[in-house]
Amino acid sequence: MIKNRYLMLFLAFIITFFLGVLYAWSVFVIPLEKAFGWVRPETSLTFTFLMAFFCLGMLVSGQFIKRFGPSRTVLLGGLLGGIGFFSASCTSSLVWLYVSYGVVAGFGIVVANVVLTSVILRWFADKRGFASGILTAGLALGAFFLGAKTAPHLIAGFGWDGTFRFLGISYWVIICPLSFLIRFPSVVPGAGAASSAEVWGVGLKEMLRIPSAWYLIFWLLFIHTGGLMIIAHVSPYVESLSFTPENAALAMGVLALANAAGRFLFGFLHDKLGRKPTMVLSSLTIVTGLLALAYLPANFGYNALLVGVVITGLAYGGSIPQLAAMVSAFFGPKNFTTNYGFAALASMAAAILGPYFGSKVQFASSYKEAIICAAAVSGISLLMALLLKNPNPEQK
Predict the structure, then answer these.
(1) What does the pLDDT look like over 206-233, one tens digit per residue?
(2) 174: closest CA among 220, 127, 142?
(3) What pTM was estimated for this model as a whole?
(4) CA–CA distance from 291 to each of 227, 351, 369, 371, 378 (Å)?
(5) Could you give the CA distance from residue 97 to residue 80 in angstroms, rounded to a whole number?
(6) DSSP code, position 390
(7) Considering only CA atoms, which of 19, 219, 208 is closest in space to residue 112?
(8) DSSP string, 12-59
(9) What is the separation of C-alpha 10 from the centre of its chain, rounded to a whole number of angstroms?
(10) CB neighbour list of residue 342: distance below 8 Å, 6 or more residues apart
């Protein structure tokens, strides 16, 4: 049995790195549309199903871990993810694509990811920010390197169907064997107490009666809604400033890497500075980044735009590990998967609201006004951060 928590964290990172390839959906859109003559509203429904079952998986993963334990639940997630991708290689209809990629793969991957987060936060009860930062960065890096960078080359060489098969097999070969090593700690490292003494916590109904839960949820909602009002439109925004498509592609790549780096950085700051100071810093940072995107490029050019992209990406990515760390610290590890799953729905809501409102403002006015509105929306998160208090000050 593994007793070294850093080795456990490394194994969990590898698994989440491969789980992150689910976010590579966009690279399959054009090949599938060319192969079957589908149009964008039809293919985009795949991602809608993915998000719907992503949310469902977050809410029910707690029941799986209670019944099967962490190892078998991660195994189940890996099996379903592999089945979903491999089945997608046999796509001949939209319904098949929706079910294979959107339902089966989406559900399996999120179940595995939420359980891994629960496991690692117990191993790192004294370094929750650091641990959740590493783990959430794994998803972002997997989406970037396996999705944005590797998948297009695989599609070019083996077709969209061969790439789906490759990804499905990689889940079975890599994730499923590693799942057998995933365990809760018998003794909580850094806590000096048996895990049975550490496993405390409130249920979802009780959590939702605590004001701090809602401040935390709305803090994330406003940061992500404001951020996604422009993050979802970075490429067209760059081109609207008369920069080249190559400049737009580079900005998207820089944004993805800043997103991953922010998870490391703000996870580290969460442990070093404390929860509230880091939340406040996140809110201020994303407002600064958005305002830089709105005002700097016109006066200082493309490099200044990249500065705004980096600052915004760092703050947006950095909010994600903080949510996991605070849900665990405030409401306990006992019901973490269910509580975290509900709180993280704020990010899912933001993924719908942010791009929609951003496009509405841009259409009615311009990208500059849309970004200024995004900064104002993100700025509301500062109030949420200032109002939030630890409901269990005796818990570190």
Answers:
(1) 999 999 999 999 999 999 999 888 887 7
(2) 142
(3) 0.82
(4) 11, 21, 10, 7, 11
(5) 15
(6) -
(7) 19
(8) HHHHHHHHGGGGGGHHHHHHHHHHH---HHHHHHHHHHHHHHHHHHHH
(9) 18
(10) 58, 59, 204, 207, 208
